[in-house]
Every structure is written in C-alpha cells, then in structure tokens.
Design a protein that fits this description.
Layout (H helix, E strand, L loop, with lengths): L8 H19 L11 H8 L10 H12 L21 H13 L6 H22 L6 E5 L2 H19 L9 E5 L4 H9 L3 E5 L9 H9 L3 H6 E7 L11 H11 L2 E6 L23 E4 L1 H4 L7 E5 L2 H8 L28
Parallel strand pairs: 2-3, 2-4, 4-5, 5-6
Antiparallel strand pairs: 1-7, 6-7
Helix pairs in contact: 6-7, 6-12, 8-10
This protein binds pyridoxal-5'-phosphate.
The site of pyridoxal-5'-phosphate has 13 residues, from helix 6.
Length: 343
C-alpha cells in the first residue's frame, strides 16, 4: 500500500477533476433534472463495480458523473416542487466539503471540540428562534425522525423517573392525524402506543380536542399517557397546530409537550408568520430540520430540549472504550449524550 503522503500524478489529476465537478455542480443553479432508471438498466451500462481487481477511482468517478448522478432527481432544482426540497446554499455545501475533509468525530468534545463549538453557535441561534427559556439547548441529528425519537425517549425516561409504577406500563402518546408518518414509526421503534386525536374543522390539533381525547381515555390509558406530539407545519399542507392551547392542556395534565417542526421550523425566522407558532416557547422539546427550510445540505436535523439534562439522563452512553472520552481534560459538551446516535 502506498503511503498516504506520496501522491502520484494521476491522483492529483483525479482530485482536480473531482474538485472541478464539485465547483461546477455547486454553481449550477439549474441542474439537469435526471430521471430514475431501473436497476437492471443501470447495471447494463455500469456493470459490476466491486471487483477483485477494483475498478479504480477514476472509472468510479466517471461512472458516477456520467451515468449514476443522471439517474437521480436533484432536490435543489428550482422547479422541484413535488417533494419537500432541500435548498442548500453554496456556502453550506462548500463547508460540508470542508468538514468532511477535516475528518472530525463530533460525538465528544475531546475529539470534536472545535467542530462542536461551531455546532453550538448555530444551535444557540436556532434555540433563540423558539423563544424557549434559559437552559434550553439541543443537538444536531441525522434528521427529523432521529430528532423526534430522541425527544420521545427522553420524555419517556423522565416519565418513568417520576413514578416507580410508570415502569410497569407500556407508554402511550397522543398525536394528530396530520402528524408525520415518522411519528408512528418512532412509536413502533420504542414500543409505545399512539392515540390519534380527531382534529378540529381546520385539521388542526387544538387544546379543546386534545382535552376531549384525554377525558375519554380509560383509567389505565390515562396512567400510560406520557406525551403529546403537536406539529409545527404539517408536511402535506403546512398546517400549524394550536400550540398555545395544546401547551395549556399538557401543563394541566402534566404531559411532555413535543412540537415536531421538522418542516415548518424555518418559518420561525419569518416575522410574517411567527405568531402562528405562539406556544412553541412552552414546549418540552422541539424538532427542526435545517436540511429542509434552513438551507443546509442533507442530512441535518435538530432536537432541542427545554431542560437538556433530562435528555442526558436518557441518552448518555456508557462503555469501557467510551470512558476515555470523558477523561479529565477532555471535559466539554458531548453531543452524543443528548440523542440516540453516537457518531
Ligand atoms: C420530514 C419530516 C420528518 C422526518 O424528518 P427526516 O429528516 O426525513 O427524518 C418528521 N416530521 C415532519 C413534520 C417532517 O416534515
């Protein structure tokens, strides 16, 4: 194997080719739309790529550029209205290159301190948009699904710690019919049950409808109930639940109040619609996806907690090989302590 320090001419040429492609692609505001192709059609052109001899970096890059990238639908196309788009800025994509090249492991301050400092600056701004009180903070995740799951695991842990008998119950959460499909998957993953509230006439979850639903629960179900998931901008229609009245009910009923603003969270920065989110500042946790309406490239989600220590109780991983990261002298903010992912 060649030493990493001896770079031959063909490697330099390939690197320049790749950089040229990246610069052109970043500057291209109207990329070809491309179209999906059947796997067998792609295979007929590309063939087997993982071979004993290896196909080489240059061939791999050319196949990607000339064939495979064209079999994708780029989500930053200006006419890309069919799906939830990502619209990363040039600066964000360029810095994605920079952080990849810098090879940072961001789970622990010991190895990732400088990178985590940057994340925390961005997080401070994100938290400031929500209006959550002093002490609220969060971490970045791979996306909204991981953020919602992290928040609900923290919520269930807090609920279980509150009363010993809660440990015996299968947890139950309430959400609305407009909630994102990932809320159901998340409940499956954590083996919790879901009750779906009938929305009001405008398809919004309101405190009144939430209270009706809670009042109609049987005694055991009421004991199992630990959280409410409201939506700050449904993915289909952008509908924002009546967060303030939902917060009233959660407070009265002593329930964890989560707002899934994965899609709509970007609108917190828009004075024209900010008042639609009144009540979000009373949430126990909030999900926002910077890779949707905040101009980050995939993948970048975020989970924010009113009391971040509650998240640490649920998520801090322990293991012999991890202890060195928590040595004296390596003290700092460890993002992995606050959500389900490590790296
Ligand atoms: C997109 C979305 C999610 C899921 O987020 P991913 O980043 O795709 O994991 C969850 N909730 C809402 C409201 C969404 O719009």
């Amino acid at each position: 194997m060649k030493s990493m320090h001896s770079i031959d001419i063909s490697t330099v040429e390939m690197t320049l080719d790749i950089m040229k492609y990246a610069i052109n692609r970043i500057s291209n505001t109207s990329p070809d739309l491309g179209s999906p192709k059947k796997e067998e059609d792609l295979f007929a052109i590309v063939g087997e790529t993982v071979t004993k001899e290896g196909i080489g970096g240059e061939k791999a890059f050319h196949m990607f550029r000339d064939v495979l990238a064209k079999a994708t639908v780029p989500v930053d196309h200006p006419r890309h209205l069919a799906f939830v788009p990502a619209a990363p800025t040039k600066a964000a994509v360029l810095f994605d290159l920079v952080t990849s090249a810098a090879s940072i492991h961001g789970a622990y301050w010991m190895t990732g301190g400088g990178g985590i400092f940057c994340e925390n600056q961005a997080m401070k701004w994100l938290v400031s948009l929500t209006g959550l009180p002093e002490g609220a903070f969060g971490v970045f995740t791979s996306g909204g699904t991981a953020a919602n799951l992290s928040a609900m695991i923290a919520a269930r842990e807090a609920w279980r710690k509150k009363e010993e008998e809660n440990k015996a119950f299968k947890a139950l959460l309430i959400t609305s019919s407009g909630a994102h499909s990932s809320v159901k998957s998340m409940a499956n993953v954590m083996d919790a049950d879901i009750v779906i509230v009938d929305d009001d006439d405008e398809d919004r979850l309101t405190g009144k409808w939430l209270q009706n639903t809670i009042d109609n629960l049987g005694a055991i179900d009421r004991k199992r109930l630990f959280a409410v998931v409201a939506t700050g901008g449904t993915t289909n229609a952008g509908i924002i639940d009546e967060l303030d009245s939902v917060a009233d009910v959660c407070e009265k009923e002593n329930l964890w109040f989560h707002v899934d603003a994965a899609y709509g969270g970007g609108a917190l920065a828009a004075p024209s619609v900010r008042d639609l989110f009144i009540g979000i500042e009373r949430a126990d946790s909030i999900t926002i996806d910077p890779h949707k309406w905040m101009f980050s490239p995939y993948d970048c989600g975020a989970v924010i907690y009113k009391d971040i220590e509650l998240a640490k109780n649920a998520h801090s991983q322990k293991g012999a090989y991890l202890d060195i990261f928590k040595d004296e002298g390596a003290q700092g903010f460890n993002p992995s302590d606050y959500q389900i992912q490590l790296t």
